[in-house]
Amino acid sequence: MYRKTQVLRNIPRIWNYIKYRSLPRKSTMSVKRYTPQIASMIVTKRCNLTCSFCSVGNSLNPKDWRDSEATLEKVKRIFANPLFSNCLGVDLLGGEPMLCKELIPIVTWLSERGHLVNMNTNGLRLDKHIADLKKAGMSRISISLYEDNQEYLEENLPNINKIFPVHTSIVLERKAVENEQDRILKKATFMRDAGCRSLNVMIYRPQGLNPNPNEIISDTLPAYIEFKKKMEKNLPGFCNWPAAIQTGKVKKRCPQVWQRIATTMKGHMEICCGTEDILQGPNSNLFECEDKPDVLFNHPTLVSLRKQLLDEASEPPDMCKTCNLIGDPGW
Length: 331
Hints:
By secondary structure, the protein is of the alpha/beta class.
């Protein structure tokens, strides 16, 4: 995506990134020091699939979904805040982002500002809108692979990739890596042959509708080590492998509470991508703190998490112990 960076428009964002990479992380942060690099927006709470491992599965398809849906007006208000304005990357998340009625105008506006716009989707509406998304300036699209969208992808993915080559991702559970390696390899081979750019292997985290800690994959699991070698042998360079759950002494490298800022369309702030929980109490809503971004960026929950991540002598925060990103340094 870096090739699509509009350098002149992005000088403030590039400078913000340089400061983020150069200056040490602290538990209490100032927006004058640097602000997050990635903005995540939940552009809709609606979805046309129901996946047990969905990270927001407990809050999908609410009756008041219209209040939770993104509009260009709401997005402009969000990016007027210093916490969001200098984010280099923007992730459009859901629910299923393709259900958002104002998605194309939102992508166009973000792209014209110079942001790198990424969308995670199940792809079921992509064949009808891929040309419009390309024209709007979308930087990257990642399709999540499920059993429920396999038939659609087999029929439509080659044509989609001719217009705009997409990336793909899969949530890898322990039972699958132990018992279904050949099935996953076959699916991944099709994705590569259909013209996809990559497969991002996402390690299962116990969250969503039916969290199951037994499906966690550790970095010493023999089946995982074997599976990774098999995939690399058959699909060299196609798969991206994040860190698995660490065994032994944990290296706390996760930058999420410094690097990323996430909000719903109601201004509710997510803590990080490893939990469905949102910030609670005073000074926890983006729209109620528009004139005091430092206060929101230093919400007590975030400060507490940063302190534990920075303290080499302390245990990881409880919410991080089943998250593989605890060992991932980010970008």
